[in-house]
Q: What sequence folds into this?
């Protein structure tokens, strides 16, 4: 019998609320697009897996464990869909972890992260609620991306360029650990005389970076720094996974991967 599995791989979070509002709903929407497949979950972050085990006694599979489990249970056809935003280090690791299983399963298909082609940037921008976007000249939105030393960091400035092209002049992308950084964006906001700013995570989950680095009360958080500049700051503590159009796009990426694999045969 041809047993079909769907493995959804997220970086992971140790915040239960962030898991319930950003990861689970994405999993639900992707699985709903593949009713003939048995869905299982894996996290990419070993640190988060270890933390959940220690703190909550909760077991979450690594990619290798999940694929090994599918094999043991007799599955022959596997589709993997990550919930990553950019094809960075996490995606490379997923591909590497899945590689040894190419010869194990009759079919192993891996979907792309949210951003793959240029059209995907547009999908992301359109998925952002209009209510969050700056309507006045002295208002701005800053999207907090994670940022990475990986080449895929180029996605962040690309996204900002496209936001401007699509008419959102006062929409900025700043990253925690990559380029552009917050100081560069802060300077732009001050030069432009921006008075009100919305901060929103450009991450699947509003976890540690969003709650602390972006919205925290400490004086080095993005919110505090902009307030020190005299701006009125609103924080959105919702990850991209809370947006319906984002959820659907991950399902689309998975469908596309299955189609592409079909035509390649
Ligand atoms: Co980080």
A:
């Amino acid at each position: 019998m041809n047993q079909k599995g769907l493995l959804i791989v997220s970086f992971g979070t140790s915040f239960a609320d962030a898991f319930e509002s950003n990861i689970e709903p994405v999993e639900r929407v992707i699985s709903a697009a593949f009713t003939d497949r048995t869905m299982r979950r894996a996290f990419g972050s070993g640190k988060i897996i270890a933390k959940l085990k220690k703190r909550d006694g909760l077991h979450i599979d690594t990619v290798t464990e999940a694929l090994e489990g599918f094999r043991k249970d007799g599955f022959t056809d596997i589709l993997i869909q990550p919930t990553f935003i950019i094809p960075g280090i996490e995606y490379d690791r997923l591909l590497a972890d899945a590689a040894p299983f190419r010869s194990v399963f009759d079919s192993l298909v891996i979907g792309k992260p949210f951003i793959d082609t240029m059209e995907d940037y547009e999908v992301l921008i359109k998925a952002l609620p209009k209510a969050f976007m700056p309507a006045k000249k002295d208002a701005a939105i800053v999207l907090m991306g994670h940022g990475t030393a990986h080449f895929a960091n180029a996605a962040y400035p690309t996204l900002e360029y496209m936001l401007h092209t699509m008419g959102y002049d006062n929409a900025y992308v700043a990253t925690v650990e990559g380029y552009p950084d917050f100081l560069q964006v802060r300077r732009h906001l001050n030069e432009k005389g921006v008075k009100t700013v919305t901060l929103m995570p450009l991450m699947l989950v509003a976890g540690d970076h969003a709650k602390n680095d972006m919205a925290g009360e400490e004086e080095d958080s993005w919110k505090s720094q902009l307030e020190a500049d005299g701006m009125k700051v609103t924080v959105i503590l919702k990850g991209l996974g809370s947006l319906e159009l984002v959820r659907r796009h991950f399902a689309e990426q998975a469908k596309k991967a299955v189609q592409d694999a079909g035509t390649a045969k």
